[in-house]
Amino acid sequence: MSSSLHHTLWHGADYNPEQWLETPQVWEDDLRLMNAAHMSSATIGIFSWTMLEPREGEFDFSWMERVFETLAQNGQKIVLATPSGAKPHWMARQYPEIRRVVPERGRQAQQARHNHCPTSPVYRAKVAQINGELARRFGKHEALLAWHLSNEYSGECGCDLCFGAFRDWLRKRYDNDLDKLNRLYWSRFWSHSYSDWDEIDFIDKGVHALGLDWRRFMTHQTTDFMLHELAALRPHSKAPATTNMMGDFTGLDYAAMAPHLDFISWDAYPQWGKGGTGDDDIQTACWSAFHHDFFRALKRQPFWLMECSPGQTNWRDVSKLKAPGVHRLSAWQTVAHGGDAVMYFQWRQSRGSSEKFHAAVVSHEGSEKTRMFGEIAQLGAELEALGEVAGSQTEAPIALVYDFENLWAIANEQGPRNTNKSTQKTALDFYAPLWKGGYGVDVVDSTVDFSSYKLVVAPMLYMLKPQVAERLTEFVRAGGTLVTTYWSGLADEHDLCFLGGFPGPLREVLGLWVEETDTLHAHQTNRIQVGDSQLGLGGEFEARDYCDLVHPESARVLATYACDFYAGRAALTVNDFGAGQAYYVASRNESSFQSEFLTALVHKLELKPAIEADLPTGVVAQKRVRQGREWVWVLNFCGQTQSWTTREEGFEKFEKGEWHALQSGQQHTLPSSGVAILRRSK
Max CA-CA distance within the chain? Predict the structure, then answer.
């Protein structure tokens, strides 16, 4: 990661001064207000193509040159975006082949944004031209902090160009052997075998491996398009580059894109206040933390929050305001999980068009007098004062596997359960107890190296890509602890089921085989009875949705089903394997099971939380470290004032711009949405 990126905690926003060319007073106000809000950066140019090239081949960079100079003189650094996310009308009319073809095989009209064909040679040439012009003019400017490649890459195109490229990609993937593709696609089923590569010209949903490969191809093609953008910049600029990814979006495999970026950034829009209770905001905070840990783990280095809303959005069915203090709380949560930047969409509210009612640092009222501006300015001052945190790392002894290709495969498969598969909810259910306990977690793709972790949690690992089972087995053999669940180890990377009994190549390390999986209707439940003394678990827990019928081989039974014809059969097992252990959770259980089970497990493994403290429900701690110094954030998400104490010595607490000694055992009050920031040298 470039040293220029992590010498401070960046505070910035998407800035669109080209919308205010006719009102120079607004530009002057912006400069003053940016300093009042402690803004250290501004992101410009994201959707500016028509202002940079109003007609084909006619370029006008004069307004952007003014922006660079005025921001630089005002003390802000600049994140410069390439404008490929929204093509000009003149281009779409002159070159209709650059417009996407939707699955129904119709070409999209020129509208909205994010609707270009990623394969089109014409569009690639136009993007390379505008990017090259930007890089030549601004690539070495002293104010340039980073490149922002396009905006929220997404979507797919089904045009002839894309399908031609897809067939070329398939030829390479399958060694130009159509018989091999047919075998791995199991395409004799329903007589779907291909006799010629050109027959692959639409996505047949009955051939699951084809759908998987199409998604893989779209990730490949989007990544290739992104690298094409970057290639146009690099002859003229070495500034680090990123693209803004999105939280719940799984249409592109971010793990495949991440190695090609200098640093990771993402756009977060959690629904604070959705249910009106503290419990709802705790769940929202868990969602945010999970994604922070996912994006941080993509490169295992600090990330940027490229977009968040300082208030309400404008695109949900109901867009709630952020209550006082919630924005500061969520911003410090970002930093606590490894973020080195908090940035907004947007700086100033637009007067018209789609996002005119989306919140901004500066509202339509236009001054610093709003509640929102005051909270942002306070946060900006705090980020400025705590720049020492930038570049520090997160110690994560735990990995939670969240693999996009596995999600695609589960979504595609037509199995015993075709509603409420709930893969993300399941991942969050296993993540939540670890987050609430203050443990460092990397949310990772299944292809990572597991050797540095103590505990790997892999819920619903349906697809086992090449070498994943072998690496998990070796991880346990070497002393690691593995937890996996029902609906794991069923299929390979081609979505071909393993023969010889599930969970396929994980059978030996788990010490069991799964004969059948019962799936329950919404009104049905089972119960599991835990009789384990080793972990200190006990009692009964409700099971729903999925119940595996397990045959333990070398595994020991820790819990059994209470109901139905499989009452008394194993519902939770552990297998001693080499120097480690592998646990199998055979049913989808109520959240309290995950909480008690994983809490007992981390205590057994003697994993250390962020801080040894008595924290009430909804108050969560996270830690970052660097060279003998650690910072801990204690964050109150529960919606009411809480008291807490620490049992550790040597901490200082940041209050009103200064550090004060924190006494062990002393009770501290944390208001609703409050944040306590601590540090200690070790």
Answer: 77
Q: Is 388 a catalytic residue?
A: no
DSSP assignment of 76-120, as one string?
Answer: -EEEEEP-TTS--HHHHHH-GGGB-B-TTSPBPPS-SSS-B-SS-
Task: Quote the CA–CA distance of 306 and 268 in Å, as a whole number.
Answer: 8
**Which tokens go with 489?**
């180890």
pTM above 0.70, yes or no: yes
Q: Which amino acid is at 449?
A: D
Catalytically annotated residue among 53, 152, 156, 382? 152
Q: Which of 53, 156, 229, 307 is an active site residue?
A: 307
Phi then psi for residue 334, to 5 deg, are: -55, -50
Paired strand residues for 642:
670
* Residue 229 is among the residues annotated as catalytic for this protein: no
456 forms bridges with which residues in the sheet?
399, 482
Average pLDDT, the chain: 95
DSSP, res 393: B
Which pair of tokens denotes residue 249? Answer: 């979006």
> What pLDDT score was predicted for residue 427?
98
Distances (CA, A) of 191 to 1, 207, 368, 494, 667: 51, 11, 67, 18, 71
What does each C-alpha distance from 635 to 275, 388, 445, 662 come to in angstroms? 20, 20, 28, 16
Predicted confidence band of residue 301 (pLDDT cuts 50, 70, 90): very high
Burial class (CB in 10 A: 0-12, 13-18, 19+), 204: middle
- Cα torsion 434, 460, 475, 498 to 10°: value is 180
Tokens linked to 252: 């592109």
The torsion angles phi and psi of 631, rounded to 5 degrees, stand at -120, 135
Structure confidence at residue 663 (pLDDT):
86
Give 319: exposed, middle or buried? Use CB within 10 Å, 0-12, 13-18, 19+.
middle
Domains of the chain: 3-154+240-389 (3.20.20.80), 398-604 (3.40.50.880), 613-681 (2.60.40.1180)
Residues 113-152: b if buried by 16+ CB within 10 A, e if exposed:
eebbbbbbebbbebbbebbbbbbebbbebebbbbbbbbbb
User: What pLDDT, on the 0 to 100 scale, is given for residue 533?
Assistant: 73
Residue 534 sits at φ, ψ, to 5 deg, of: -65, -45
642-646/613-614 β-pairing? antiparallel
Instruction: Please report how many Cα atoms fall inside a 13 Å half-sphere around the Cα of residue 297, on the Cβ side.
Output: 29
